[in-house]
Amino acid sequence: MCTRCCPRAPLNPLADVPLVYPRKLDLACTPTPLQYLERASQKWGDGHRLWVKRDDLTGCTLSGNKVRKLEFIAAYAQDNGYDTLITCGGLQSNHCRATALVGAQLGLQVHLLLRGDEPQEYDGNLMLDQLAGATVSCYSVAQYVAEIGDLFAHWQQHYAERGSKALVIPTGGSDGIGAWGYISACEELLHDFTSAGIEQAHIVTASGSGGTQAGLTVGAALHNLPATVWGVNVCDDEAYFQRKVAADIADWSERYPAVDVPEVTARVLDGYVGEGYGIAGPSVFALIAELARLEGLVLDPVYTGKAFAGMLEEIQQGRFSSCRDIVFMHTGGVFGLFPQREGFSW
Ligand SMILES: Cc1ncc(COP(=O)(O)O)c(C=O)c1O
Q1: Does residue 303 have its Cβ closer than 6 Å to ligand 1?
Q2: Which of 209, 242, 331, 342 has its CA 20 to 30 A from that of 252?
Q3: Are residues 73 and 214 both part of a single domain?
């Protein structure tokens, strides 16, 4: 057993007390499968068993990690009288697409504030945003970065003046409410581990706004899941994500003071951002193509492709050497593939 980074002792003394979750909606197709990657393990595992938690299968168009967060966020919106959801992200944001579809499913208006000039053609996630009837406002990168707080306030006021009540959902749905999504996913993983005969594992996930990592990190501790959670950052750096994960957990604990807060550390595997957010190098595209052929598993160039590449590199460097099992969290993102089709050389 790995004692360096996989403490087996319960981290949360109150773990035997049932955790009281806030209300959530059933939007995701869960539990998602945990699948063994036999050929990938042989090829890249270096003695490890590689598994994938198929959170890309949480739905068809409502796919990916964001749905788990939105189950709690949308319930909060309903319970507090909101009729409109405003959120933000990149032009190809998976979170914005998921929010657009959840809103349509629940009869809520959705307004997306997107980072980047409006493209001539709507492709991938952006096309689905449009199809779901979301209002889309595009801003130049400079304006978005400088003014996103003001833009949220402006649109919230705009809806208030028209008799609507708009909930602002932060980037990626990553806040104390959204954190519940992956806290509860850890219960699912406990069952998965038992069924698969996994005694101890490393879990690797892509980190973009930190909420998935925050939920998994705190959820693993709360549920005594025998796992060490690692985030591969796809933007910014290790220090940023340590702060962001800590901030999401602090927001969660402030909102739900009745829950005992475990002491946790955010573990970040930095060095795989490449040229920047959303820009993948040829090796990531080659890996996506290779894995698709080897295992029928499709990753994306913005999040999961980089995270998987990072995981393989860290295996080579011996980062996970004392645990046999490694679980890759497949957080979805398939629609982001299509606008980047030129990255593949056939
Ligand atoms: C497909 C996909 N994977 C991973 C992530 C990262 O999740 P989080 O924003 O919770 O860090 C995102 C969103 O940012 C995503 O869209």
Answers
A1: yes
A2: 331
A3: no
